[in-house]
Amino acid sequence: MEAPVADQSDVWLVVPVYNEAQVIADVVRHALETFPNIVCVDDGSRDGSADAIRTSGAHLVQHPVNLGQGAALQTGVEYARSQPGAEYFVTFDADGQHQVHDVLKMLERLRAEPFDIIVGTRFKGDDSHIPLIKRIVLKTVVAISPRLRKLKLSDAHNGLRVFNKKVADEMAITLNGMGHASEIVEMIARKDWRVTEEQVEILYTEYSMSKGQSLINGVNILFDSALKTSSRR
């Protein structure tokens, strides 16, 4: 059973949004049933996403132009960490892939166990439902990254993360695009944030797949990861 909304008043969901007008209001309304504090960062959308967010009940912050998911996350974290009573933070996708019950499970662990950040993973159980190209790309990223293996992270590009105020206060994402996921891993290692993983369910719908990682973006992720790995040696 999901916890009452009042029990989650110290939690802020940070949702980066780019051209998600079709689904963002429904995603937010469903999450608001459990989490009263949600900030959506409209990253220069051109499809009416901002109007949809305004009607959903979430806080809205807007970028005048598209800066990239990393920039939207950083803006959202900065907004959330400045709010009174904010103690726990969640990065949550706008396309409906992430599940509220997974957030609750991760928060329960973060409140009770000695971790600063918990990262969602698709690879602790049966991963056959993950599209083949995506599965190959994500596993290759781990294979070429000694840092990921050292941290025992199997899915660094999973956008569902739960973390405490220490992490939020120290988070400083500088890579605006998809490279931010690798940068967050670098921060975990460099700042000695205590980290673990949690198996999560990713809901792959026709809509989310049409918005999902293309092969070209997958190659970009691999290139970025390889470049960052070699630059740290």
UniProtKB/TrEMBL annotation:
Keywords assigned by UniProt, alphabetized: Transferase
Glycosyltransferase 2-like domain span: 13-170
Signal sequence bounds: none
Keyword Transferase applies: yes
Family: Belongs to the glycosyltransferase 2 family.
Annotated protein name in UniProt: Glycosyl transferase
Any Pfam family the entry gives: Glycos_transf_2
Molecular function as annotated in GO: transferase activity
